[in-house]
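Subgroup meeting minutes
Present: P.N., E.W., G.H.
Scribe: E.W.

1. P.N. recapped why we're keeping a running log of single-chain structure predictions: easier to compare across weeks, and new members can see raw inputs and outputs side by side.
2. G.H. added today's entry (283 aa).
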Amino acid sequence: MRDLLPRRVRGPLGAAGRRAFAALAGPLQPAVAPGSVVVLCHCHYPDLVPELARLLRALPRGAAVHVSSADPAVFSAWERRWRGARAPIRFHPTENRGRDLLPFITVARSLDLAPDAVVLKVHGKRSAYTAAGSWWRRDTLRSLLPGPFAVRRILARFAADPRLALLGAPGSVLGHPVYWGRNRDNVAALMCTLTGAETHDEDLAFVAGSMFWIRGAYLSALLPRLDPTRFEPEPIGQDGSYAHAVERVIGLAALAWGWHIGEVDVPEPLSPDAVRHRRLRYL
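Output recorded in log:
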């Protein structure tokens, strides 16, 4: 029945259903241990705050939310939307540079992340270079945190596999050579710094869209090896910047260091070979 409805109708109906379910089921879910679930959300556009806040209201007690932005209006919007939420929220003013990745690195470095913490990285980018940019963002957000009990399932995945570093949304881990773009040389240089080894064309495997769950121990190992001064001033192009290289390195470095990467709907880790022929349907 759902598929018979046009997308413009499905979207509001689905959002209403998720809000109702979160309101009813949220108080029933058990709390998580403090520090075990951390959300890092970069939001550049105030009008996207309602969408992000609706999603994150499904978080259980014990989770912590950190919002970064260069626009004070974003923080004001979050304060209005977050009243009565179960998870505490902190705001981090950041420079408008490096898209969502430099704020992510900056805020994560300021936190004392436990090795077994799971961190949800989300953002409010528009991806205006594709007509499906808004649907890409919404579908990814809903897949990573589909409801009040999703965090328990994510925690169980990380607990079951101590080497699991990253979980992306369904279909988000890509390895097709076309997704090197203009980043091949920058990624190779960065990977050489990180691992001391060469990077080959067939090594590509990264989480497209730059939203994922990431293990605290892996994130803490990666952060000191990234250079915030190399992020170019905005506006930057669609491809070829340091931010685009870092986006790819997050997955590549995990595999090179012996960690696993995967997707929330696939029980087994994914290899570069398994995603070699994938193409992202939003581009």
